[in-house]
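WP5 quarterly update. Target: Trk system potassium uptake protein TrkA. Source organism: Dictyobacter aurantiacus. Length: 219 aa.
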Amino acid sequence: MYIIVGGGGDVGYYLTRYLLQQGHEILLLEKENRRFQTLSEELGQAVLKGDACEARTMEEAGARRADAVIAVTGEDEDNLVICQMAKKRFNVGRTIARLNNPKHEELFQRLGIDVTVSPTKAILSLIESELPGQRFVLLMNLKRAGLEIIQIVVPSLSPVVGKPLSQINLPRRSNLALIIRGEEPIIPSADVTIEANDEIYALVNREGEEELRRTFGNA
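Structure tokens (predicted):
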């Protein structure tokens, strides 16, 4: 694949180096002269000096033949511009943007960015999963399908404790995928009885998430 990476900070550098090791054709764009010189010493011809937000730079980088453009600058506005230009002007099939502020995620999705990656959100999810008493954790967003994979730890006072799944009114917008009880994985079926502290993994859309919280007593 031919991949253009916009932004030569630490993220852009390590991403480019990894993708080169995987055998991809990569071009990293960096506008700041001193940083460009440093990157050139490390990555050679895989680095081009220029602003990825500018159409002229993207043209020089060969964006029209790129399979993907990845924008990982430290500014969300720049990452949005890079990806939108790649999509609309150069017809790049796949755009990926780094999100520094998770609040911008919905905006990026509405404006057609294929994939957003938020290190802040990922760290927060990890912290939440380790907090005592935290019983509802978002594990993954499947943006194209409008779905989420979530983890629920059933509270001891949940109204569903002691009930088989056949007697629990689960939201139509949810699908239980797995139950972990201690060290034992259990495939959900109608006769499986829910116990306190069961870890339940479910696939839901955004509307079904709140319903599932209420069903298991996590709201």
